[in-house]
User: What shape does this take?
Amino acid sequence: MSTAVGADPGRVWRALSAPEELIRWDEQLEALLDPAEDYLQTGQQIRWRCRLGSIAVVLRQSLLEVVPRERLRYITQMGLFRFDETFTLGREAGDPHRTRLQLKLVAANSIPVVGGLLDRFAVRRLATRLIDSKLRAIQKWCESHP
Assistant: This one.
């Protein structure tokens, strides 16, 4: 899924890569647990304190690829939920002041949960809601905080 953001790629990249901004637009994230001087280094493990609904959990991210202002890819794990997230940034066709932001999320076809299993349809609905909410939040943040 993708969206057009009314900000240049540098602004959108900062929203995706600066921990102090991430906790402002991503309502699940509360704090970076292991502050790092060089936050975005391929291979780095990042831990966040976050909320999954009303439940406090630790979100873990393993950085797989960092191409400044172009692509950010990591494996995210929140409890039993594990998925591959890739943000891709590009100029919006015909408008150099806008950014086309794409988020690709890859998850297993089923996810075990206490007392059962989320099948591929439930996983797809969950992934679609997660992508949509992240893209909307980033768009709103970047457009209201130039």
Observations:
- The CA atoms of residues 62 and 124 lie 22 Å apart.
- Helices lie at 9-17, 19-25, 120-144.
